[in-house]
UniProtKB/TrEMBL annotation:
<comment type="similarity">
    <text>Belongs to the YciI family.</text>
</comment>
<protein>
    <recommendedName>
        <fullName>YCII-related domain-containing protein</fullName>
    </recommendedName>
</protein>
<dbReference type="InterPro" id="IPR011008">
    <property type="entry name" value="Dimeric_a/b-barrel"/>
</dbReference>
<dbReference type="Pfam" id="PF03795">
    <property type="entry name" value="YCII"/>
</dbReference>
<feature type="domain" description="YCII-related">
    <location>
        <begin position="1"/>
        <end position="81"/>
    </location>
</feature>
<dbReference type="InterPro" id="IPR005545">
    <property type="entry name" value="YCII"/>
</dbReference>
Amino acid sequence: MFILLLTYTAELAEIEPLMPAHMAWVEAHYHDGTFLISGRLVPRTGGVILARAASRDAVETLVAADPFTEAGVARYDVLEFMPSRTATGFENLLN
């Protein structure tokens, strides 16, 4: 399991035009089962994605293809962890 911490490295004026392409990228990875939850940071300085992937290399390849990364307006910190406990109803995250 991975936490993808997205940090904007440019002003929101540069981020906003890329948002539709970024959201299409996000949607594609929800559709393929990689992304489990995501959202903006408060204050709006980036975002967080909880992802499931086969390897760290796969995640690094994935984030390199984010339109934000390709445009150089954001960077990702990738944190890998092994989930061992969940709240009731989220047990499927342990698989």
